[in-house]
From TrEMBL:
Organism: Volvox africanus
UniProt xrefs under InterPro entries: Alkaline_phosphatase_core_sf, Sulfatase_N
Pfam family, one: Sulfatase
PANTHER family (alphabetical): N-ACETYLGLUCOSAMINE-6-SULFATASE FAMILY MEMBER, SD21168P
All copies of domain Sulfatase N-terminal, residue ranges: 2-203
Protein name, UniProt field: Sulfatase N-terminal domain-containing protein
Gene3D superfamilies according to UniProt: Alkaline Phosphatase, subunit A (3.40.720.10)
Family: Belongs to the sulfatase family.
Recorded superkingdom: Eukaryota
Length: 251
């Protein structure tokens, strides 16, 4: 995926530039590749007014086009759900997926996986560059995604924006000095906790009014060498959050 390769090249350049700072200033680098999103084409008038938008399947990098051809589309119990009684009206109105629908979703799934190969390479390149620059022991790395995705569950096609588990849950992996390898945070966390976590690890104040989250409870998974000021997750501090708050509204 060309766009992901461009992002990777710019991220590497920015990392090298930050590491070359003669003052040794700390840096924060956030990298957001577009993969594995679908491709989009926009139509505009001669004057520049928006006309329409067209969606196309994800486009992997040419070097990955033939990979993962045997990858199977996940089929959890909710796949092409045969029982929709009691579900929301919009979901009850969906017809069961046909064999052609499933074949299409299988290929979309493989295209998305192929697109992620460029992301794999980008992450590997960034981590290797940190090693080469001698910064691995002083850098925190956090990997996550903005949302989950559904492909065939509950009779739905390919997409997101629902309140089902497939769309809500995302991976979040973190590595860095003071974190015990293989450990896991078992309390509820959210994306709004990332910014406070970065500030707390940098020993900066958390007084900004726009901060809605709290630092991740990393003290609970520390190897004992996290900064003493990072108390979030210590047993004597109590749980930071033990439930998610859902905001519901009607239109």
């Amino acid at each position: 995926q060309y766009a992901t390769d461009v992002v990777a090249a710019k991220a590497l350049a920015m990392l090298r530039s930050a590491a070359a700072n003669p003052g040794g200033q700390p840096f924060y680098l956030q990298v957001a590749p577009p993969a594995p999103h679908h491709s989009m084409h926009y139509d505009f008038t001669a004057s520049g007014a928006f006309v329409s938008r067209h969606w196309y399947p994800p486009v992997p990098a040419a070097r990955h086009w033939e990979e993962l051809s045997g990858a199977a589309l996940p089929r959890p119990p909710s796949f092409n759900d045969p029982w929709v009684s009691g579900k929301p009206a919009w979901l009850r109105a969906l017809d069961p997926l046909t064999a052609a629908n499933v074949t299409f979703l299988e290929e979309i799934h493989r295209l998305r996986l192929r697109c992620m190969r460029a992301v794999d390479e980008m992450v590997e390149a960034l981590v290797s560059e940190l090693d080469s620059l001698g910064l691995s022991d002083s850098t925190f790395i956090l990997f996550t995604s903005d949302n989950g995705y559904h492909e065939g569950v509950h009779r739905m096609g390919s997409g997101k924006t629902t309140a089902f588990e497939e769309d809500l849950r995302v991976p979040m992996m973190m590595a860095g000095p003071g974190l015990a390898a293989g450990s896991k945070v078992v309390t509820t966390t959210q994306h709004i906790d990332i910014a406070p976590t970065v500030l707390a690890l940098a020993d900066l104040p958390l007084s900004l009014r726009q901060l809605d989250g709290v630092p991740l409870p990393l003290a609970a998974v520390s190897d004992g060498t996290l900064p003493p000021s990072y108390v979030y997750g210590r047993p004597d501090q109590g749980p930071l959050r033990n439930q998610c708050v859902a905001y519901c509204w009607s239109q």
